[in-house]
Amino acid sequence: MKIYLLRHGLTAYNKEKRYQGTRDIPLCDEGRRQLAPAPICPDRVYVSPLVRARETAEILFPHTPLTVMEDLREMCFGIFEGRNYIEMEHDPDYIFWVGEDCTGRCPGGETRGEFSDRSCAAFVRLVEESLAADCKEIAVMAHGGTQMAVMERFALPQKEYYHWCSGNAGGYLLDTTSWKSQGKLTLEGEVSFLVCPQAVT
C-alpha cells in the first residue's frame, strides 16, 4: 500500500509565521488558488478535524469521502497560538520552551512527546485499518507537526523530527512493505500538490 502523508494548504497564519496549533484557521484565498484536484484518487483520505486540512483535502480529492480522525489535529501550542516568534522574543515562557528544543509543555498546551504519541497512535490505527481493507493507496491530510511526528517514528531512512516538515500542500509518498515486519515505512519520495508553487511566501 502507498501512503501520501500531506500537509494542508497555505493559511494567513502561515504567511505571518504564527503558531496555529489547534486554532481552526481556514485556508487563505491565495492558498485556495494554489490548489486543484490532484492527479491521484486514493481509496481513502484521512483528515485532521481542523478546517485547513479538510478544505485542502476537499479540493485535492473531490471524489473520495473524507474520514475525520480527531487525533490527527496539530499540536496544541497553548498560549503561543496566534502569535509569532517576533512577538514572543522577550516572553520568558517562550524563551524557556525554545531553550528546551521545544520539547517541553507549552503553557496551556501539549508537550512534543504527548503530541507525537497521540498523532502516531492515530496513524497506526488508520494504516492497520486500510491494510485490512486491502487499500492500494491512501492519503493522510494533516499538519506539519503530524508529518514530523510520524516520519521521525516510522520512516526509513531515519531522520530527526525537524527534518520532516514539508511545504504547504506537500509531503511524502511512503510504502508499507516493511510495516508488518519492522513497523516502518519506506520513503519513496517527496510530493507537492501546489499548482503555482512560485506564489508561496
Features:
single chain, alpha/beta, 7 strands, globular
Count of β-strands: 7
- What best-fitting shape do the alpha-carbon axes yield? globular
Q: Uncertain runs with pLDDT below 50, 5 residues or more?
A: none
What's the order of the H and E elements? Answer: EHHEHEHHEHEEHE
% residues in beta strands: 15-25%
Number of helices: 7
Our measurement of the CA-to-CA distance between the termini, rounded to an integer number of angstroms, reads 34 Å
Indicate the radius of gyration in whole angstroms: 16 Å
Largest sheet: 7 strands, mixed
Structural class: alpha/beta
What is the helix fraction of residues, given as a range? 25-40%
**Mean pLDDT, nearest integer?**
96
Major beta sheet, strand line-up? 3-2-4-1-6-7-5
What does the model show?
The protein is of the alpha/beta class and 201 residues long. Helices cover 31% and strands 17% of the residues. The protein contains seven helices and seven strands; from the N terminus they run βααβαβααβαββαβ. The protein has helices at 12-15, 29-33, 51-60, 92-99, 112-132, 144-154, 179-182, and strands at 2-7, 44-47, 66-68, 137-142, 155-156, 170-175, 185-192. Strands 3-2-4-1-6-7-5 form a seven-stranded mixed β-sheet.
Q: Would you spell out the secondary-structure blueprint of this structure?
A:
Elements: E1 2-7, H1 12-15, H2 29-33, E2 44-47, H3 51-60, E3 66-68, H4 92-99, H5 112-132, E4 137-142, H6 144-154, E5 155-156, E6 170-175, H7 179-182, E7 185-192
Parallel strand pairs: 1-4, 2-3, 2-4, 5-7
Antiparallel strand pairs: 1-6, 6-7
